[in-house]
Records
---
Amino acid sequence: MLKQSISNNALLLAAFALATTFVIAGTYLSTQQQIKSNIRQAQQKALLEIVPDHRHNNSLLDDNKLVNDATLLGLREASRLFIATMDADNVAAIIPATARDGYTGDINLIVGVNVDGSVAGVRVLSHRETPGLGDAIDLKKSDWVLSFNGKSLANTDWRVKKDGGDFDQFTGATITPRAVTNAVKKALQYFAANQAAIFAPAANTTIHTATSEQP
C-alpha cells in the first residue's frame, strides 16, 4: 500500500510539473512577440534621440551591422551598430561602447557619429554609478552628456578639465565622467578606423575591426 501511495503521489507531482511547464511555455510564447515589440520601441526611441527623424528616412533598427570590439569599444560581447541614411546617402552611425572603468562597473552607451567624424549625440544606456554623483551621466539627471555634441577628434581635448581637457567633471566624482569621455573618444577612433566598413553595402553585415588610436 505504501509503495502504491508513493507511486501515485509521484505520478501526480509529475503531472503537475508537466502541466506547469506547459502553462509557462504557453505564457512565454504568447508574450514573446510583445516583449520583442517593446524592446524594439525602446531601441528606436534611444536611436531617434541621437539621429532624429528629420535627419534620416531609413529604418535605423533594420540597417545594422554586427561588431565585436573589446580594444576601442570595450564591448563584452558582440553588439549591433546602426546606420542612418537620407535618400541612401550616409548620415551617421550609432556605435555601441562600454566604459569598463566606471566607478562601480561597466557603463554602457551608444555614440552617434556623423559622416564628418563629429559627435551626433551620446546616450548612456545602463550604469551602476553612485546616485547623486556619478549618475549625472544620465540625461534624466543632467544635460552633461550633451556636451559631446559636435565634438570631434580634431577639435577637442578628450579629457576632463581636472586633467587639462575640455569636459566638466562632477563635484566629488571625477572617475565616472573621465570614463565616459574616454569611451566616447575611443568610439570616434573606432569610426575613423572603420568608416569604410561601417558604410559598406548591407550585404557586409559583420565588421572586421581595424584599430587606430589617434590622439
---
Amino acid sequence: MRGTALAAAAMAGVLTLAGCAKDSGGSSTNNAGSGNNQAGNCVTAPKPPAAPPSSSANQTGEKVDGSKLKVGLAYDVGGRGDASFNDAAAAGVDKAKSELGVTQVSESTASANEDEAAKQQRLEQLAAQGFNPIVAVGFAYAKAVGAVAPKHPDTKFAIIDDDSVKAPNVTPLVFAEEQGSFLAGVAAVYKSKTCHVGFVGGVNTPLIQKFEAGFLQGAKAASTKVKIDDEYLTPAGDISGFQDPPKGNAKAAAEIANGADVIYHAAGASGKGVFEAAKAKQVSAIGVDSDQYNQKTVADSKDVIITSMLKRVDVAVFDYVKAVAKGDLSSVPKRFDLKVDGVGYSTSGGKVDDIKDVLDGYKAQIVAGQITVSDKPQK
C-alpha cells in the first residue's frame, strides 16, 4: 500500500503557467468548468452533467416515542471524543435523546488491543442490565455480537460495519464508504495545486480499503495525471493505527514532503495528527466520518479542512433506534449509500462551494448506476 502514483502526463504549457506542480493561477484550458483556477491544470476529465433537481420528500410530522428505551452503546477504540467514527455514533444517540425522548443511555469504550472476552463481557453486561437495543460500534464486535446475541433473544442488537452475524435479533448497519470517498478523491484533485494528493489509512483492513479504493478511483476519474501517495499506519491486527495521532502526523508529513498538498485520512483519532501536519505546512486536508471542520477536538486545525467524507453513522444509529421504538425494523436501509444519503461530503467552511456542482454531478452518476465504484483498491 505504499506510494501508489499515477505518472504525470505531459505538461500543458502554451502561454500558460508550466504545469500543475507550480501553478499559481490562470484559466483552465479544459472543460472542468470549476472556479478553481489551479484545478484546471490537473483536471483532465470533462465536467460531469448537472445533477437533476433534488426531490427529497420531507418526512416530518411523524412522532415516535422512545422514552421507554434503554439504549446501550459499545464504542470502538477512541470512544466519544475521537472526532470521527465514534463521535458520529454518539451524535445519533444524542439526537435520539432530543427527538425521541430517550433518557436512559449507557456508553462504554473498547481499549486498544483488548481481547475478545472483554468485548463479550461489555455486551453481556449491557444486556444483563436491561439495555435494549444495544449498538456495537464497529466490525471488531462481530464475534462478540455473534456470541452474545443468541443468549439474549429478546434483546435487539445492531452492529456497525459488519453484516456477518446472521441472527434474527441482530441488524447490520453497513455503508458504501467507497462511494463517499470517490467524491473525496474528486475534491482532492480539484483543490490540488501540485496535482499530487495523499491518502492515510489507519489500519490496513478490508473496511479501510473501501475508503482507499473510492478515493483512488475518484481522483483518477477527475485526472489522468494526478500523483497519489497511499499509506497505512498499521497492518491488519494492530488496531493502534486508529488511535495514534503522532504516527498520523509523521505519515502525513512524509506525504507532504513528497509533494502532496491535499491529504485524505481514514484513520479515526489518528486523523488529528494528519490535520496537524497539514496545518504545519499549510496544505489541505479532507476529514472522514463526521464533519470534522466542526469538531471541537480538531478545532485548532479546522482552517485546513476543506471537506469531510460523511459516513452517516449518526443517521444509521438514529434511524435504528427510531425503528426499534416504532417496533418496525423494515425501514432501516440494507446499505447506507449515496442514494439514501448514508454517505456524502460536507460543505462547512465554504471551501468546496465552487465545485459543489461537480461533486453533485458525480454523485448523480453514481446513484444512477452510470459509475460503479469499486470497494477494492485499483492500483
---
Amino acid sequence: MGPDRAIGIVGGTGMLGRAIADALLDRQVVSARQLWVANRSGAEGAFDDHPGVNMTTSHQAVADACDVILLVVPPASAASIAMDASERLVISVMAGVSIAQLGTFTCARRIIRAMSSPAAREGLAYSPWCASDDVTAGDRKSAVAIFEACGLTDEVESEAHIECFTAMTGPVPGFVAFYAKAMVDYAETQGIAPDIANRAVRQLFLGAGTLMSTGTMTPAEHVTQMINYAGTTAAGLQEMDRSSITKDIAKGLDAAVARTRSIG
C-alpha cells in the first residue's frame, strides 16, 4: 500500500498505538495527511512532530475516511469501538478479542486479528496475524506492509496461534525480562554490584538477541552448540536440562494463554 491510502488508528496515542503510528509515518507507509487517529481527547498536539495528522474523537469519522482501520484500544474497551466499517479492512491488535467479536463491534467482514508490541517504533516488533474468510489478497498485502514497517511478520493459521503469540510476545517482554532478572539476582548474591549486574545482563541479552535474529541457527541449535563445546556454559545448560525449568516455563505460558482467551 502507498502513502496516499488512508489509514486510521483507533487508540493511536496509547503506547502501542503511537508506536505503530510512528513506524508507519517514519517508514512512509502512510503520509501524515492520510493518517487518522482517534482518541478520547482528540488532542491536536499529540502529533506535533508529524504535522498534518488528522485527530478526532469519533470512531465513525475514522471509518468513513480510511481504507484500513487499526484497532489499538485496551481489550476492556473493545465494545466502545462501535462503528460501521462494513466496507473497510479492520486490523486489530487487541489481546483476547476474537474475529467474531470484532465483526460485532465494527460491522466489518474483512478482519485481521494480530499481535504486536511497542518495539514497532524501532522496527523490532514481531507481529503475527490471521485473517477472516473475506480478507482479500490485496488486504493481505496491506497487512504485510503495515507490519513490516513495525518489524517482522507472519500470517498464522488460526486465532489459537495468535493467542499463543499474545502470551509469548505481548507488549512487554516479560518472560525474557524474568529470566534476565534471575541472572541479575544471582550476580548480586555473588557480591556483584547491582548496577554492574544490570549493565552486564542487559548487554548479554542485547548481544544474544541480535545474534539469534541475524544468524541462521535456531535457538535449539545455539543450545546444542554450547553443550557440544563442553565449556562452562555447557555445565549450566546440562544442569538446567535435568531440572523442571522447561516444564515450569510451559506452565507459565499456559497460564498466560488462558488469560488471553478469557480477557476478551
---
Amino acid sequence: MTAPWSRSKLSWLLMTTIAMVDASKHKYIMYLTGQHNVVPRPELVADVTHVTLAFMRSDFFNDAGRTEWPLFTTIEEVRPKFAVGTAIQVAIGGWGDTDGFSRAAKTNESRELFARNVKAMLDVTGAEGVDIDWEYPGGNGEDYKQHLNGEKAWEIEAYPKLLAEIRTAIGPSHIISAAVPGLPRDMLAFTHGTIPLIAQSVDFFNIMAYDLMNRRDNVTKHHTGLDLSQRAINAYLERGVPFEKANLGLAFYVKWFKTAADADCHISPIGCRTDLMEDPSTGADLGKAGAFSWHDAIPLELSESFKRAIAEGKYEDGGYYYWDEKERLFWSWDTPTAIQYKLHALVEKSALGGVFAWGLGEDAPKFQHLRAANEVMRGLVSSTSEHVYEERSEL
C-alpha cells in the first residue's frame, strides 16, 4: 500500500509547482490507457500539461470500506516519464461503465460516499485530480436499449450534484475534468440549465469530438471531421461552457464501416448508406463497424483494404476518408496534417482552453500524430505568451 501523498514534503512541493503553471498556457492533455500503456521519449511529451490514466472503475467508489484503488499502473511509475509539473489525473468510468455512477448519484448519502472515496483515492495515489468519465448521464449509453432514456432522466439533475459533492470533498486545489459526448443527440445532461452548474465544479470539459460516426448511424460521415467537431464545440459554448474550459478531443485511431451492398457510393462516399450496424432490439454490435489504433496490428481481413485507404485516401469536407469499392468499406481517420489544420481552425481561432487526445500510446510506435500536435501546440503557447506580454507592456 502506498503511503498517503500528504506525508511527503517533496510531493507537496511538486504539487505547489503544478499549481503555479502559467495560466496563459493551453492545456495539452494525453490519456494514457491500459490498452496501450506506451510513453515515448521525454522530448516528445515535454509540452504535455496533463496525463489522464484510464480507467478506474466507477463502482469502486460506492464501497464504504474500500482502501485499495487498483489501476493498470501507478502514479509513481508514470510521473517520471513526463516533465516536472505535469499534472497526473485518474479517469473514473469510461464507455459502458455507468452503473457505479448511477448508484452514486441517487441520494445525498450515496453522493457523499462516492465523493469521500474520490478524496481517499487521491490521498493514497498522489494524483492531482480526477477525470469523470460518466459519458452519457441521462441516457444514450451502451445500454440504451436495455435501459431506456426515460429510466435515466433523473440523472440529468443528479449529475451536477454528484460533481458538486466531489468538488466539496477534494477542495479547490485538485483538478476535476469531465469527459463529455461530441454528438448533440447524446448531450442529454448538458443543457442551458445544467452546464452552468457543472461548470462551477469542473476545471475543464474534454469534448469527445470523435466517434461522431458510430454504429448507430446509417450513412457515412467523418468520425472526427472538422465540421462535426466544430458543431460539437459550438453546442457546448452556446450552452454556457466558458471558452477557457473547453478542450477539443483528437482521435489517434482509425475507424471503418461497412456500406450497404445496394448503395451507390461512387457519386458521394460521404452520406452513403451503410449496412445495419447494430441490433435494433438489443443494440448489440453486428460486426459491420470497428476501430483500431496506430499501435494495433491491423486485422488480417482488413489489411489490404486499409493499404488502399492509406494510399488513395483524401481530405474533403473537413476530414480524411476513403471508400473501398471492392470491400464496401468506408474508412475515416485523421492524418497528422489534418490534426494540425483542426488545431489551428478550432483551438487557435476559437480561443479554446486546450486539446486532449485518446490516447498517447495509441499513436505508438511512430507517434506521428503526437508530433504534429506538438508542433502546433508549441506555437500556440508561444503566441499566447507573446500576446500577454504585449498587453502588459502597453499598461
